[in-house]
Amino acid sequence: MTLARRLRGDAPALRALAAIAVLLLTAFAPIDFGPADAEQDLLLVADLRGHALVLVDPAAPEAVGRIPLPGGPHELLRLPDGRVAATLEQAGLLALVDVARREVQTVDLGGLPHGMAVDGDLLYITDRASNVVRRLDLQSWVERDPLPAGAWPHAVGVLASGALVVAHAEDATLAIGPRVLSVSALPETLTVAPSGDRVATAGALGGRLEVFDASGEPLWDATVGGRPVRALFGPDGAVVAVALSATGRVALVSAPGTVRTVAVGGTPDGLAFDATGDVLYVADMYSGEVAAVDVASGAVTARLDAGESAGSLLIIVR
Fold it and tell me: Cis omega (within 30 of 0) on the bond before 178?
């Protein structure tokens, strides 16, 4: 099936209307998630080189299911309707995935869509091809006028106050609402605390993790080195995990900047905590494996096969 291009017209609503194409409806059987009362959640892995999403059961070595995509998935985000959004940057597409049914729809955006965040009925998507943050209405899928951004907007988040946060990789700046702050060089990631009142970013070239409050005031920072490419607050907001892609390690950082590193090997990328915060999953872009790390001890307790190249991670509740 060919992909529909965006419709264009004179009316504002039609000018940016994103067409949706259904790709996979009946080609695969629904995924069996196992018993509904199972305690162990599942892990959804973006296989960038394999052009697929891989569903893994951390309690078993084998993958539960694989969902092919029409491009390599970069970022993953759960939508309010239960589906998972995946940005397919090099294809200029947004994939909307019903994981259980293996149903995939695509929104043809063009450009280079990458980071995502949801606020109410709006989906925000960074686009470094045009240095803007795109905005899609989740009810109608009409695209609203984009928001101007700095050079190479890479990651985006929303604070509890409703303020938009954008990391501009090329500018080495972090925008928190209207305030623009200089940060560590090449910030490719940001993470908002579960409380929504703090945000952290890390500079891939600068090697520093920085934490700010909702107004943009610096709270603390820590030097982590190792080309940090992703950061993630733990469920209680007390720890920030940082993937150090150049050293095969993940840093566990707590205020006021205490750093503990764990060797996981390969090229660490995507991060996900389990609901308790006791286990951190770390994706390896090189091998396609996901390491399960016991946060308290720093021990790698399991390695899970997740395709050709494991990137962004998302916990899927059974």
Answer: no
Sheet architecture: strand order including 289-294: 268-273, 279-284, 289-294, 300-305
- Per-residue CA distances from 2 to 21, 22, 23, 110, 317 (Å): 8, 10, 9, 15, 33
Other Cβ atoms within 10 Å of 265 Cβ, number = 16
**Average pLDDT of the segment spanning 262-273:** 97
Better-scored residue on pLDDT, 207 or 63: 207
- The CA-based angle 97-283-241, given to 5 degrees, is 105
DSSP 8-state secondary structure symbol assigned to residue 172: T
CA gap 266, 281 in Å, rounded: 14
Nearest residue to 155 via CA among 146, 147, 166, 164:
166
- The pLDDT mean for the chain works out to 89
Tell me the residue length of the chain: 318
Lowest-pLDDT range, 15-24, 245-254, 301-310? 15-24
Number of Cβ within a 10 Å radius of residue 17: 18
Distance set, CA 114 to CA 40, 92, 103, 110, 206 (Å): 30, 9, 21, 11, 21
H or E segment at 239?
strand 239-244
